[in-house]
Design a protein that fits this description.
The structure is a homodimer. Chain A is mainly α. In chain A, 56% of the residues lie in helices and 11% in strands. In chain A, helix 2 crosses helix 5. The structure holds a DNA duplex.
Chain lengths: 110, 110
DNA sequence: ACGAGATACCTCGCCTGTCAAGGTACTTCG
DNA sequence: CGAAGTACCTTGACAGGCGAGGTATCTCGT
């Protein structure tokens, strides 16, 4: 991974919620999507992903259900809840603020 | 603090190095500067700051010396080394890449 | 003279998120 | 039949941030 884990620490929840805003999905697919969108420069490790799902479900931001898998491995689908949408907007705002502040702090010239 | 710790995890080193690029400084002052630049929206905790100094000094990115404090509390000044400047540029590049990827990942529309 | 608050440093131990490593189970294709 | 892909999950280690606590000096108001 070119982007180290610590650099996006705290942002995984936001990333997952953003993906689920576009429709229900499941772990494996979300991971692939993230990898594709970032052109392979960033990918969540499975352990991180499933820990995040658990955390998000416990906090009521997402809900899950087993897809009826006629064929293939069973999939656990996730849906974003109203609370999850709120969380997404909050995290998005935080990200924009973080970006702004970081850009100021990292600028070496005044 | 309005910006949670995890959001800047992994970025503290870059922030400190960026500050030192503008000239030698010491812990207390760096912290004040960060607070000022971010309009008080973000401040490193002292424990975090001094841990980072130790880490950066051990990895050869910064060097320290005691300022001769005729009056007032003694100050430990830090200087950025050549290795530290390299690290800054690398971290800066990483930050720009992280920003780009995060913006893509957090966008809910396609 | 004294206490409060600012300046200035530091350490210990907890918490939390990431991840390496390991496991399970099913399907497809050569 | 075996390898590779799909798909899930857990455990334990690790590292960084930080709450809480400590030390020492100086300044300023009362």
């Amino acid at each position: 991974m070119s982007i180290a884990g610590d650099l996006i620490r705290g942002h995984t929840d936001a990333i997952i919620l953003a993906r689920l805003l576009r429709g229900d999905s499941y772990g494996y697919e979300i991971n692939k999507t993230i990898s594709t969108i970032s052109s392979g420069r960033f990918e969540l490790k499975e352990a991180t992903l499933y820990t995040a799902f658990k955390r998000l479900e416990e906090s009521g931001c997402i809900a899950s259900y087993w897809g009826d898998s006629g064929a293939g491995a069973r999939r656990r689908y996730y849906t974003i809840t109203a609370a999850g949408k709120d969380a997404y907007h909050r995290l998005m705002t935080e990200w924009l603020e973080t970006k702004e502040i970081m850009d100021k702090l990292l600028r070496m010239e005044e």
